[in-house]
């Protein structure tokens, strides 16, 4: 255990008033600030914002805790919040400690015999349950819903900072998205990153949805299109949900644009040494491909 991890362990123990027997970084994902926490007879997951980060957006750990606590109270599949604080009390940072969910990653579930269509069907069912929660009961009910123009602008800001050799077609796609956007539907809770990688499965069904760091109030089809990024076709997901085909095409194109922007922005941070993560060097073809697919979907 490093000196920093020892400090985190001691601060957390003081907050929850029980011994923390072990604390280890979780290797999955790319945030680098999630930890397995071994308590007496149980295991938890600790999340912290990056050191020195402004507590806003993805670094707003207390906001994530509010969302999960609100959803868990209504019987939805999210981790229970064991303890949280908005004050800088664990290594000078706010924190949330969640229960550790017993479940499999998507690759493990498929290797164990689960059908990807079954997993997707469960994900769609759970999505409908999230979307049925009144906005006032989501933990972020006081926030304004994100309009579609704002959604495109949000990812354009990232795209403009991605390596320019990868984003030549991006302005064309952004323009089409702005010109052809569908009519708005009543806002719902949006996870924002609702793909298989942010789900745990048990016996072919979603056991928990994790990583609520970019959640918001917004349009229902935003999350639906994320499911089709891997293991299953977009058409199958559209049919499961019963989405309007024309609207769904637009949201698919936006989803390609969004993830190309996220990967490109993180690649820029890696290359500048601000957030080293060599895995993004392997995603250059994905960035190019997502932008091209978005253009084709709206052709």
Report on the structure:
The protein is α+β, with helices and mostly antiparallel strands and 299 residues long. The protein contains ten helices and nine strands. The mean pLDDT is 96. The protein has a five-stranded antiparallel beta sheet with strand order 1-2-3-5-4, sandwiched between helices. Strands 6-9 form a two-stranded antiparallel sheet. The chain has two domains: 3-99, 2-Layer Sandwich (Phosphorylase Kinase, domain 1); 106-297, Aminoglycoside 3'-phosphotransferase, Chain: A, domain 2 (Alpha-Beta Complex). A hairpin with a 2-residue loop joins strand 2 and strand 3 (42-47). Helix 4 (116-131) packs across helix 8 (234-241), helix 5 (148-159) packs antiparallel against helix 6 and helix 9 runs antiparallel to helix 10 (284-297). It is globular and about 60 Å long.
List the helices and strands and how they pair.
Elements: H1 3-16, E1 22-25, E2 34-39, E3 42-47, H2 61-73, E4 81-90, E5 93-99, H3 106-111, H4 116-131, H5 148-159, H6 170-179, E6 188-190, E7 199-202, E8 205-209, E9 216-218, H7 221-226, H8 234-241, H9 245-271, H10 284-297
Antiparallel strand pairs: 1-2, 2-3, 3-5, 4-5, 6-9, 7-8
Helix pairs in contact: 4-8, 5-6, 5-9, 6-9, 6-10, 9-10
What's a concise summary of this model?
Helices cover 42% and strands 16% of the residues. The chain is an alpha+beta fold and 299 residues long. The protein folds into 2 domains: 3-99, 2-Layer Sandwich (Phosphorylase Kinase, domain 1); 106-297, Alpha-Beta Complex (Aminoglycoside 3'-phosphotransferase, Chain: A, domain 2), CATH 3.90.1200.10.
């Amino acid at each position: 255990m490093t000196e920093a991890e020892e400090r985190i362990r001691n601060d957390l123990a003081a907050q929850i008033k029980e011994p923390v027997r072990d604390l280890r970084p979780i290797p999955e994902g790319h945030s680098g600030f999630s930890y397995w926490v071994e308590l007496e007879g149980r295991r938890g997951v600790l999340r912290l914002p990056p050191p020195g980060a402004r507590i806003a957006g993805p670094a707003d750990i207390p906001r994530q805790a509010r969302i999960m606590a609100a959803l868990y109270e209504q019987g939805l599949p999210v981790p229970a919040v064991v303890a949280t604080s908005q004050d800088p009390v664990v290594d000078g940072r706010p924190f949330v400690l969640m229960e550790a969910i017993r479940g499999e990653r998507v690759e493990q579930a498929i290797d164990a015999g689960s059908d990807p269509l079954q997993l997707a069907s469960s994900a769609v069912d759970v999505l409908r349950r999230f979307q049925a929660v009144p906005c006032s009961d989501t933990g972020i009910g006081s926030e304004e819903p994100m309009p579609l123009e704002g959604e495109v602008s949000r990812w354009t800001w990232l795209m403009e900072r991605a390596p320019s050799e990868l984003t030549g077609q991006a302005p064309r796609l952004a323009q089409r998205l702005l010109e052809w956007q569908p009519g708005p539907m009543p806002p719902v809770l949006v996870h924002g990153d609702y793909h298989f990688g942010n789900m745990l499965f048990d016996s072919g069904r979603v056991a928990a949805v994790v990583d609520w760091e970019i959640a918001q109030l917004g349009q229902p089809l935003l999350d639906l299109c994320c499911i089709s990024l891997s293991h299953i076709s977009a058409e199958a997901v559209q049919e499961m949900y019963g989405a309007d085909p024309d609207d769904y095409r637009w949201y698919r194109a936006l989803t390609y644009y969004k993830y190309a922007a996220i990967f490109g922005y993180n690649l820029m941070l890696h290359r500048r040494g601000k957030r080293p993560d060599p895995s993004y060097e392997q995603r250059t073809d994905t960035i190019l491909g997502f932008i091209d697919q978005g253009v084709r979907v709206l052709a």
